[in-house]
Every structure is written in C-alpha cells, then in structure tokens.
Specification:
The protein is an alpha+beta fold and about 260 residues long. Helices cover about 30% and strands about 30% of the residues. The longest helix is centred in the last third of the chain and has 28 residues. The protein is globular.
Length: about 260
C-alpha cells in the first residue's frame, strides 16, 4: 500500500463506530499527494466517461455516468482500483471495521469511475444487499473524491440519513483526496445532493464495494435491489413520482417474466 498515506488503524476503529447514523469514517489526504495528482490528471472528461460507460437519466439518479470496465481505466485509476482490491488493503480495512474476509468485486458492479454533471443528483437510498449469482453479501462502500477547488455550494455532498429519512445526520463535501467508507445495511440510507458546479466542471469520484461470503448478523434471508426514499422536502416526489416510478418498474419486470415463460 505504498501509494496510500499511513493509516491510523486504531483511530479509525474508534471513529467508525462513534457517530450516527450508522458506521462510517472519513479519511482526508487518503492517497499520497503525487498519486492523487496522477489520478486527477488522468480522470476522463464527462463526455469521455459517457462514451465508455453507462449514463443515468432516471427519476432517482440523473446526470451521472459510471465506467465499471477496469480495462477502460487510465493507468493511475487502474492502479487505484488494484490497490483498493488488494489483499493487504482488504485486511487492514477489515480490521478497522470489524468485518473479516472482505472480498472486492472484480466486476465493479455499480462502482468504478463516477462522474456527475451540473443538475445531476442521487436520491436517498439503501443499496442492493446481495449478488445471488456469486452468493456475495454487500458489506462496505468506499468512495474517493477527486474534485479540486470544490465549494460546498457546488453541492454533490454525500449525505447520511437516519432510519426514517427524516434527519440528515452527516454530510461530506467531495473535496480532493477525501475518502469515505460506510457499512452497507438495511439502515444505511445515503444520497448525493444536486450538483450545482459550473458547467465546465463535474463531480468526480471512484467507488468500490466490498462483500463477504458469510452473511452479516442483520441478514434476514431477503435479497433486495436498491431502494429509494424521498427526502422530507420532496413531497411530490415521495407521494406521487416515486410510487408511480415503482409501479412502472414492477410492471416491466412482470412483463419480462411473462415473455420469458412464453418462449
């Protein structure tokens, strides 16, 4: 882990469990300065990422693009991916958070390079909790930000909410070389505020997710996809738009299943 700054394992252990609403930690100056600069200088433009990845223009997630194919990563970002997936880092991270046998996802489902342009957003949600094909339980999210001169008024804050999504307990500005890690569970409600940066900028981050073969203590045997909730001030979205969107999604799934049975 020569590309990372020294990790205060004991200090982060205390931080991870100390503050609401669910276990998380923030590490500033996460990467060595020269490595962080290499990644920053190699980060694709929004248009380049859009050409190589998947774009989101849905009700709950808009103005965002992600690149999950590590073969399309610039060399410094590929090195970051390999570092975060390494056995040494996974062992250290597992010691901090108290979860042994962490596994990185080689396919980066939902992870990799993330970029969000002005007016993009991500509603409050809990993540999918299980990859059935590989029998993997999702346990941790790690996010590393690469935004220089990012002001709080530019938005794009990582938010952590309470169980009822009534109170925002924590919010982190996605400043350069900041790392955030949090436990993923059925209470880890989080989202990203609307991005309001200048048109020539985008919110840049790298995301990785960790899994275990072993089920967590809170596992109830029920796998679910990403579940969204409206913020308290999103009355129309919560009472009309989200229910209608869920209805359409369920109808499409039922139609696909019916078509599959007819084949």
């Amino acid at each position: 882990m020569q590309r990372l700054n020294p990790i205060d394992v004991d200090g982060l252990k205390a931080q991870f469990r100390a503050v609401p609403p669910f276990p998380h930690m923030k590490i500033d100056n996460f990467l060595q300065e020269d490595f962080a600069e290499e990644i920053y200088n190699s980060f694709p433009s929004f248009a380049e990422a859009e050409a190589n990845g998947k774009s989101f223009q849905a009700l709950n997630e808009r103005g965002k693009v992600q690149v999950t194919d590590s073969e399309k990563f610039p060399a410094p970002i590929k090195e970051l991916h390999d570092t975060l997936a390494s056995a040494e880092f996974r062992e250290t991270l597992g010691e901090i958070v108290g979860i042994p046998n962490l596994l990185a996802d080689e396919y980066l489902v939902g992870g990799g390079i993330h970029e969000t342009r002005r007016s993009g957003h991500l509603d409050v949600h809990i993540d999918f909790n299980y990859i059935e094909e590989r029998q993997l339980h999702r346990r941790l999210n790690i996010l590393v930000f690469f935004n220089k001169e990012w002001k709080e008024e530019y938005g794009g804050l990582l938010e952590l909410w309470d169980l009822q999504v009534k109170n925002r307990e924590q919010a982190f500005v996605p400043v350069f070389n900041r790392c955030c890690v949090f436990e993923t569970s059925d209470i880890s409600w989080h989202g990203v505020t609307a991005v309001q940066c200048p048109e020539n900028m985008s919110r840049k981050s790298f995301a990785g997710y960790y899994y275990t073969k072993e089920a967590p203590a809170h596992w109830k045997g029920e796998a679910h996809t990403t579940i969204f909730k409206a913020r308290p001030n999103e009355v129309l979205k919560g009472s009309v738009l989200m229910p209608w969107n869920d209805f359409k999604s369920k109808a499409k799934r039922l139609l696909r299943r019916a078509k599959a049975k007819l084949k």
